[in-house]
Design a protein that fits this description.
The protein is α/β, with parallel strands linked by helices. The protein has helices at residues 13-21, 34-46, 59-66, 96-105, 119-130, 156-164, and strands at 3-7, 26-31, 52-56, 72-78, 111-116, 136-138, 169-175. The relative contact order is 0.17.
């Protein structure tokens, strides 16, 4: 089955909704907080969702150990980095190192989808991906944000932003054909 991943899944509400919309896929939520991983897995088990699982991992070190090369068909990064102040920039979620790790587990042509309600984080993340060429290519053209996404699911944060009229900055990149 195709593998879909959410990096930093928290309560995995987005993945549960994706699972309901497209049950023929395998869903993996990657989270650094063990208590959330346990909660997601308990909920998936209680709902009989064998195709959904959360795993505990530090993405900066474990991504390529979690997935085989080219295994991830679609990867979501939804509202990363709760510490968005400039002094915390060194702790940002999306880094050039993570992009290289993602390029190893996402096959050519597969999608990396990103969204944030913090413009500075979205712009910094967009810059990192734009500079990763030929690893990832913006589907809508260089330096272009998407107005919406068509995944049939919303995270809790996404719904809250939409209800409050907060702008969400989204983009989608396709994995390029070759690694440098």
């Amino acid at each position: 089955r195709p593998v879909e991943v959410e990096l930093g899944c928290a309560d995995a509400e987005f993945l549960f909704a994706r699972c309901a919309a497209e049950p023929g896929r395998t869903y993996v939520g990657v989270e650094i907080r063990q208590e959330l991983v346990d909660r997601v897995n308990d909920q998936a088990t209680s709902q009989g969702l064998t195709q959904l699982q959360a795993v505990y991992a530090n993405l900066n070190h474990d991504l390529e150990r979690l997935f085989a090369p080219g295994q991830v068909d679609l990867c979501h990064i939804n509202f990363p980095d709760p510490c968005f102040k400039s002094q915390h920039k060194k702790r940002r979620f999306l880094t050039p190192e993570l992009v290289r790790g993602l390029a190893a587990v996402i096959p050519p042509g597969a999608t990396l989808a990103f969204q944030s309600d913090v413009f500075d984080i979205a712009l910094d993340s967009l810059a990192i991906l734009e500079e990763s060429h030929p690893l990832f290519i913006n589907e809508l053209g260089p330096w272009t944000f998407a107005r919406s996404h068509d995944y049939g699911a919303r995270s809790k944060r996404e719904r809250r932003c939409e209800d409050d009229g907060v702008r969400i900055w989204r983009f989608r990149f396709r994995r390029g054909d070759s690694l440098p």
